[in-house]
Amino acid sequence: MPGVCPARTAGPLPLMTKKRWKVLPPDPGAQSALCARLGIRPLTAQLLINRGLAEPDRASSFLKPDINHLHDPFLLKDMDRAVERIVSAIAKREKIAVYGDYDVDGTTSAAMLHLFFRELGVDAACHIPDRLTEGYGLNAGAIDRLCGEGVRLVITVDCGSSNRDEVRHASSLGVDVIVTDHHELPEDAPAAFALLNPRQKGCAFPFKGLAGVGVAFNLMMALRSRLRRLGWFRGTEPNLRRYLDLVSVGTIADMVPLVDENRILVAHGLKEIERGGRPGLKALAEAAGLRPGRVSSGAVAFQLAPRINAAGRLARASAAFNLLVSGDAGEARRLAEALNRENASRQRIESGILEEALSMMEGKTPDRGVVLFSEKWHPGVIGIVASRLVERLSRPVVMIAVDGGSGRGSARGIKSFDILEGLRSCSALLERYGGHRGAAGLTVARENIERFRDAFIDHLNAALTDEDLVPEVVCDAEVPLDGIDRPFMMEMEGLAPFGSSNREPLLCVRDAAITGASIAGGKHLRFTVAQNGCARGAIGFNLAGLHPIGGKRFRIAFSPFLDEWQGNAGLRLRIKEVEAGA
């Protein structure tokens, strides 16, 4: 039962879209002030200005993320209440369970909290739901099982904000629930014993962009502080810095803004990963083929996180959880290799679904969005494919995996459209939905799939214009190629870790030549960029479709990077866009 929104306009599907280039304007005055105060180059200063850091003091703090500048965890609404309940449970030896989620944020949160309780001498149970049989968030069956095992306190991580009925069910069984989450809350938020979510009304926590693992880490900070005050620790107390590797992986994977508190947590967490103290992450890095040395946010996002996610997408997330909590190097290697195989399987399934989705749309032009559904698709992978389609089509995409009487869907949006609001406009046709502005999930009855498709497309046609669908290539600055050298690279790396709200700098050159182009790995393009006697090696990931290329002058958007190998570092360009004749 495959399906696609009906074509309403004749013509080919626009898989390669014309893009609007924009170069952010320089600010010479602010540049001069930053250069004089911080001793940096004008281009580096402009990168800071483009990120809203024109004031020298703020720029200096940004370049030196300080662990001592984390916010007071007790500013989170209900934190006092949550801590008191946990302290009471520990003192009375009540059984505690951590209830996670099957994605990277949820799995790292659950592993972290489980290990922290173990360090406190508390053997907390842990439940991570199965994506296929239990779905996202709390479910009544799991609560019944935990209650039957004697659990009297459930602490959710990265879920629970939309589980009003399930929290009420737990309460009816005499089980208290502390929700720690970061997702948007519905109007009828659950009446949990305590609700820790910086997005809730009346919460004084100054930073609203924490990932679920960031909220859980704040709970750990607050709990350690209270236990310290109560004289719990006789000797060494838990060193929370050691948990920052898990915090950084979950935060990066969930694509929350890498600014403010998240920047501090991730910057120090990456150093913990480099230290190699956690056998599971060390084994996973080796299985992924990561070179020893500095670990970047990109390596976490594209090499570590997908392997952790593969367990929850295709098998059971408990495999990734077991890897993260393992203290045995041999066991960690075996688990990491298994996750590596799962990830390879996930990639094959993803490629097949993408191919099928593109063939379903062949010869059709979507309106201002795409809705696809099929009985053949794996629900754990369709979100990734939806993101791939958004990249190619520059319009919102919903993909639905149909099984029996219902469909489970993943929705992905574009910069100019709130995908969650789009689903809310069709909520009468959905059994369940939730997520963020850019990504959301949904459940829909089989008989309502086509009605949902039509209503959603009608909403997109009314809400978006053709201009909204033209993607922008936003460059930080136009530069001469010879201005990108090793001293600049050392300054630019001070802006890392890169991610959402602190994207990797994107620069552009005009009137550049491309020579020596060749295809690498079947889908990547390698070539040399030359301008005014300066030449740099370059790679364009997934740009093999541009080959053959050469002989003209080009405008090229790129991110420079140092390609380190066996102690040698070469300056390379990571190509993002190429425009001929500019």
Distance between the ends: 46 Å
Number of strands: 19
User: Can you tell me the number of structural domains?
Assistant: 3
Residue fraction in strands: 15-25%
The largest sheet, given as strand count, sense and whether it forms a barrel, is: 6 strands, mixed
- Structural class per helix/strand content? alpha/beta
CATH topology-level name of the largest domain:
inorganic pyrophosphatase (n-terminal core)
* CATH architecture call of the largest domain: Alpha-Beta Complex
Q: What is the C-level CATH assignment of the largest domain?
A: Alpha Beta
Mass-distribution shape: globular
Can you give the helix content as a percent range? Answer: 25-40%
Q: Count of helical segments? A: 18
Question: What is the radius of gyration?
Answer: 25 Å
Q: Order of strands across the widest beta sheet?
A: 1-8-9-10-12-11
Quaternary form: single chain
Give average pLDDT, whole number: 91
Low-confidence stretches: 4-16
